[in-house]
Design a protein that fits this description.
The complex is a heterodimer of chains A (97) and B (498). With 97 residues, chain A is mostly helical. Chain A has a domain of 39 residues: Histone, subunit A (Orthogonal Bundle). Chain A contains three helices and two strands. Chain A has a two-stranded antiparallel sheet. Chain B is an alpha/beta fold and 498 residues long. Helix content of chain B is 38%, strand content 12%. Chain B contains 16 helices and eleven strands. Chain B has an eleven-stranded mixed sheet with strand order 1-3-2-4-6-5-10-11-9-7-8, with helices on both faces. In chain B, helix 4 links the parallel strand 2 and strand 3. In chain B, helix 9 packs across helix 12. Chain B is globular, with a radius of gyration of 21 Å. Classes of the chains: A mainly alpha (97), B alpha/beta (498). Chains A and B meet through helix 1 and helix 2 of A and helix 9, helix 10, helix 11, helix 12 and helix 13 of B.
Chain lengths: 97, 498
C-alpha cells in the first residue's frame, strides 16, 4: 500500500501538523511501509464478530449535579502561553476582513 | 553488607517499622545512589530532592508520634513523567510539555501520598509514551543499567532503569502496548500491567484511552503487590475505573501453586524470538512444573494480527487525544507571527512534537479519515474482538498463560530507531493483553548472554492476585530477581555528594 504526496498533505492538514517537505517525503515512505505490514489484518475473518471499541461494558456514569468551586482558577489561566488577568488570550478565529 | 538502596520495599518497611531505619536515611541513601549512577543511567527527567527529604521527615515525625503507618510509608519511588504531580513539572518527555506544571495530582499520586510513599522524581520515557526504547524522549535516551550501550526498553524505560539500578525501590509506569512489561523484561524488574479499569487513570496524560493502564515496577513480586495494593481501586474521577473489590494482594502470596493450570500459547514461540529468550522461558516453565503446576499447550490463533490492530487503534486514539495540544491552553506555543489561528496551531504542533509522535498522529489520522475508516479502524476493532475471544477460550482451560515478554533481550541504542516497524515488533507479545484488557506481569526469568530475560504471565481480568502468587512462587524457587547489574561494582566508591 503506497500513499501519494497529496494524501500526506491532506492528512497533515487534518492532523494540524505543519510538516516540512523533508518530513512529508519521509512520512510518505514510512507510512506506506507501515501500512504494508498492517494490511495483514485484511486476512482476519471478522465476518461473524462485532467491533470492540472498549473492553469493558461501560455504563454512562452519572453523578449529582452539584457545583464545586475550583480552589485556584487563576492558576489554570496562568498556565496558558498567553493570558491577561482572568482570561486566556487567543488569536482571532474569524478574519478581520 | 547490603547497602540501603539494595533493600526490597518489604525489607525496608520492616526496618522502618522497628525504628532501625528512618525514612530520611532511606531517602538520602537513594538520593546518594542517584548522584552516584545517574550520570550513566539517565533515568530521571526531574529529581525532587528537597521535596523527597521533606516528605521523608514528615513520615519520621508521624512515626515518632506513634502513628501506625502502612508498608509504603517512607518508601522512595520513581514516577514516570506521564503521571501528573501537583507543582512538579510533568513533561511526558516532550518539548510540548517541557514547562507544564500540573495544578493537581493524579489519583495514583493522591493514593501513594496517603500511603506515605516518598517521590524521588519523575522518570524519562518515550515522548507521550510512544516507543519501546526510551530513545524517543525529547531530552535524552535512558540507558540500560545491565549494559549502558543498550536501551532499557520503553516507553517506561526511566522507571524501569531507576528500579534496576537501585535509584528507587519501586516505581510507576504506564502500559498501553507493553510499556511497563517490556522495559521490566529488559531490566530484570517485576513489571505489572493491571486489568484495564483496575487502577484509576485520572491525571495520567492520555495516549490511547481504551488501552492505557498504570502499573508498578519492583524488585520482587511481594513489592509489586504492595504497590498495586496502594494504587488499585475505584475512582469516581475516572469513568473507566471499575468498582470491583480490591483483594489483599500480599495475602495471595502463599508460595503454593500445586495444580495451577499453566497454558503455553504456541503462537508465542514463533520465529523471531531469540533462542536465548526461548531457553529461559522453557526453563521457567520447567520450574513451575517442578513446583506442582500442570502445564499444557494452547493456541491464541489471532496473535499474528495483534500488532497490526494495535498500530491502527493506538495511533487513532492518540491522534484524537493529542489534538488538545494547540498552544492555547497550556504547554508549548510557537513564537513569531502567524497568518491565522490554524497556522499558529499547525506550527506549534510541528515544533512541539517529536518524530514518532508525529508519525503516529499521521497514521491515526489517516486510519480515521474518510474512505479508510472501515478498512482500518473498524477492521482493527473487530480483530480486537477475535483476540479477546482467543483469551476467553484459553482461560476456559488454563489459570494463567506463560511466554516471553519480549522476543529479544535489550538491543543497542540506535539499532532500531530508523526502522519504525522493527521497533513496533518489540511489543508483539505484550500488545494482545492491552487489546483484551487482561492483566500481565513480566518477571525476571534468567539471563541470555548476560542480559536479563523477562517471562510474561497473563491471567483473566481482575486476577492480578493470581499472577502475583505465581510470580512470588517462582521467586521463592529462583534468585534471578535478586541479581544486580555490574554498574554497582563499577561505580562503587565513585564520587559521593557532600
Amino acid at each position: 500500500m503506497s500513499i501519494d504526496r497529496a494524501t500526506v498533505e491532506h492528512v497533515a492538514t487534518l492532523a494540524r501538523l505543519a510538516l516540512t517537505a523533508d518530513e512529508r517525503e519521509r512520512l510518505r515512505d514510512q507510512l506506506s511501509a507501515i501500512l504494508g505490514h498492517i494490511n495483514v489484518i485484511a486476512e482476519a475473518d471478522t465476518s461473524a464478530v462485532p467491533a470492540t471499541a472498549h473492553i469493558l461494558p461501560i455504563d454512562t456514569v452519572m453523578r449529582a449535579d452539584e457545583p464545586h468551586p475550583w480552589p485556584d482558577s487563576q492558576a489554570l489561566v496562568d498556565r496558558a502561553p498567553a493570558h491577561q488577568d482572568a482570561y486566556i488570550r487567543v488569536r482571532a478565529v474569524l478574519d478581520n476582513e | 553488607m547490603t547497602d540501603l538502596w539494595q533493600l526490597t520495599i518489604s525489607e525496608a518497611s520492616e526496618r522502618l517499622r522497628s525504628g532501625a531505619l528512618s525514612a530520611v536515611e532511606l531517602t538520602r541513601a537513594h538520593l546518594d545512589r542517584i548522584a552516584e549512577v545517574e550520570g550513566s543511567v539517565k533515568a530521571f527527567v526531574t529529581v525532587t530532592e528537597q521535596q523527597a527529604l521533606r516528605d521523608a521527615e514528615r513520615i519520621d515525625t508521624r512515626r515518632r508520634e506513634g502513628e501506625a503507618l502502612g508498608p509504603l510509608a517512607g518508601i522512595p519511588l520513581a514516577i514516570k513523567d506521564v503521571i501528573c504531580t501537583r507543582d512538579v513539572t510533568t513533561t511526558c518527555s516532550s518539548k510540548m510539555l517541557e514547562q507544564f506544571i500540573p495544578p493537581y495530582d493524579a489519583t495514583v499520586m493522591v493514593r501513594l501520598n496517603a500511603a506515605g510513599a516518598v517521590m524521588l522524581g519523575k522518570t524519562n520515557m518515550d515522548e507521550f509514551a510512544m516507543g519501546s526504547s526510551t530513545e524517543n524522549s525529547a531530552f535524552f535516551p535512558t540507558r540500560n543499567p545491565w549494559d549502558l550501550a543498550r536501551v532499557p526498553g520503553g516507553s517506561s524505560g526511566g522507571s524501569a532503569a531507576a528500579v534496576a539500578a537501585g535509584e528507587a525501590m519501586g516505581g510507576l509506569g504506564s502500559d498501553t502496548g507493553g510499556s511497563v512489561r517490556q522495559p521490566g523484561a529488559l531490566t530484570n524488574t517485576v513489571a505489572l500491567k493491571p486489568t484495564y479499569g483496575r487502577v484509576s487513570r485520572f491525571g495520567l496524560i492520555a495516549f490511547a484511552s481504551s488501552l492505557d493502564q498504570i502499573g508498578p515496577f519492583a524488585r520482587s513480586a511481594r513489592d509489586a503487590a504492595l504497590l498495586l495494593q496502594a494504587i488499585a481501586g475505584h475512582d469516581p474521577l475516572d469513568s473507566t475505573s471499575v468498582d470491583v473489590p480490591v483483594p489483599d494482594y500480599t495475602a495471595a502470596l502463599t508460595g503454593e501453586i500445586t495444580g495451577l493450570r499453566v497454558g503455553v500459547p504456541a503462537e508465542y514461540f514463533v520465529e523471531g524470538t531469540e533462542p536465548g529468550v526461548r531457553q529461559v522461558v522453557d526453563e521457567a516453565i520447567a520450574t513451575l512444573k517442578s513446583l506442582g503446576a500442570e502445564v499444557g499447550e494452547c493456541s491464541l490463533p489471532h496473535t499474528r494480527y495483534g500488532v497490526a490492530a494495535y498500530y491502527i487503534i493506538a495511533p487513532a486514539e492518540c491522534s484524537a487525544n493529542l489534538a488538545r495540544y494547540d498552544g492555547v491552553k497550556y504547554g508549548f506555543a510557537a513564537r513569531g507571527e502567524a497568518e491565522s489561528l490554524i497556522d499558529f496551531v499547525m506550527r506549534t504542533r510541528a515544533e512541539g512534537f517529536g518524530t514518532e509522535v508525529k508519525r503516529r498522529i499521521m497514521l491515526g489520522t489517516y486510519a480515521l479519515s474518510s474512505g479508510y475508516y472501515d478498512a482500518y479502524y473498524l477492521k482493527a476493532e473487530k480483530t480486537r474482538t477475535l483476540i479477546k475471544q482467543d483469551f476467553d477460550r484459553a482461560f476456559e482451560r488454563f489459570d494463567v498463560l506463560i511466554g516471553p515478554t519480549s522476543p529479544t533481550v535489550a538491543f543497542a541504542i540506535g539499532a532500531k530507531i530508523d526502522d519504525p516497524y522493527a521497533m513496533y515488533l518489540n511489543d508483539v507479545f505484550t500488545i494482545p493483553a492491552n487489546l483484551a484488557g487482561i492483566p500481565g506481569v513480566s518477571i525476571p526469568g534468567g539471563f541470555s548472554e548476560g542480559l536479563p530475560v523477562g517471562v510474561q504471565l497473563l491471567a483473566p481480568s481482575f486476577e492480578e492476585a493470581r499472577l502475583l502468587r505465581v510470580a512470588d512462587a517462582f521467586q521463592r524457587a529462583t534468585d534471578y530477581h535478586t541479581r544486580w547489574p555490574r554498574l554497582q561494582a563499577a561505580k562503587r566508591g565513585a564520587r559521593k555528594r557532600s
